[in-house]
């Protein structure tokens, strides 16, 4: 754990994220990339880039005890820094809840991890390509739990897709497809992907209007 957080280890803290979201839990791990909380039920992995502030809970009634055992993602990492890439790779194949956009978490599993994005399979949205920098949090499901109580066969990923090495190239690969950006956070995030010019993505809406999107603010993309 980063020395600046040593004094908070096992304390019950409130972590405020940018965007008026917060979590409360026992501080398990923290470093320059990841903070891990235990809220009494789940382990919550939060990239530090989205943390606005951290404070110690002053109400003893809200104290959350530290769990007796650590999750598999943290096992063996006590002496090393858990990076965002390691967290994502160690989470591959696990059923998880993640939050990216559109004011709601999505559920499924991480299928693969590339240089600056990862591939997530959702029973609702199917295959989603997600920029690493826009992942707000990740919560692994308990071992016996499945999203929507589906079976492993119902959740099985059957993808023969070839994935590009970078998020931009993956977006370019989807030219001439009907796509949804950012899980449809805004109405102009849905349309036919016409072209990619450096950091600008050209999208054509259902009524033929042209929308130019800044690649920096594209959090996710999936075909519809």
Draw up the topology in text.
Layout (H helix, E strand, L loop, with lengths): L11 E6 L3 E10 L3 E5 L4 E5 L3 E6 L27 H7 L4 E5 L6 E8 L3 E6 L3 E6 L5 E4 L11 H4 L11 H7 L4 E4 L8 E8 L2 E5 L5 E5 L5 E4 L1
Antiparallel strand pairs: 1-2, 1-5, 2-3, 3-4, 6-7, 6-10, 7-8, 8-9, 9-15, 11-12, 11-15, 12-13, 13-14
Protein name: DUF2642 domain-containing protein
Description:
The chain has 224 residues and is mainly β. It has 3 domains: 3-62, SH3 type barrels, CATH 2.30.30.100; 84-136 and 145-155, SH3 type barrels (Roll), CATH 2.30.30; 167-223, SH3 type barrels, CATH 2.30.30. The protein is 8% helix and 39% strand. The protein contains 3 helices and 15 strands. It has helices spanning 84-90, 152-155, 167-173, and strands spanning 12-17, 21-30, 34-38, 43-47, 51-56, 95-99, 106-113, 117-122, 126-131, 137-140, 178-181, 190-197, 200-204, 210-214, 220-223. The strands form 2 sheets. Strands 10-6-7-8-9-15-11-12-13-14 form a 10-stranded antiparallel sheet. The protein has a 5-stranded antiparallel sheet with strand order 4-3-2-1-5, with no helix packed on it. It is globular and about 60 Å long. The model has no long low-confidence stretch (mean pLDDT 91).
């Amino acid at each position: 754990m980063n020395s600046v957080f040593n004094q908070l280890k096992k304390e019950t803290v409130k972590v405020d994220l940018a965007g008026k979201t917060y979590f409360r839990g026992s501080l398990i791990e923290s470093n320059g990339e990841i903070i891990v909380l235990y809220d009494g039920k789940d382990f919550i992995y939060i990239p530090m880039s989205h943390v606005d502030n951290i404070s110690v809970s002053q109400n003893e009634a809200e104290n959350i005890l530290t769990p007796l055992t650590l999750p598999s993602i943290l096992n063996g990492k006590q002496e090393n820094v858990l990076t965002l890439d390691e967290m994502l790779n160690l989470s591959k194949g696990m059923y998880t809840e993640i939050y990216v956009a559109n004011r709601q978490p999505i559920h499924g599993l991480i299928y693969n991890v590339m240089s600056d994005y990862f591939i997530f399979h959702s029973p609702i949205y199917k295959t989603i390509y997600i920029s690493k920098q826009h992942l707000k949090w990740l919560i692994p499901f308990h071992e016996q739990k499945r999203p929507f109580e589906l079976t492993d066969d119902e959740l099985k990923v059957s993808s023969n897709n070839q994935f590009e090495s970078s998020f931009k190239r993956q977006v370019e690969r989807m030219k001439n497809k009907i796509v949804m950006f950012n899980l449809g956070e805004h109405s102009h995030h849905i349309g036919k992907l016409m072209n990619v010019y450096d950091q600008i993505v050209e999208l054509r809406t259902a009524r033929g209007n042209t929308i130019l999107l800044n690649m920096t603010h594209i959090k996710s993309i999936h075909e519809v």
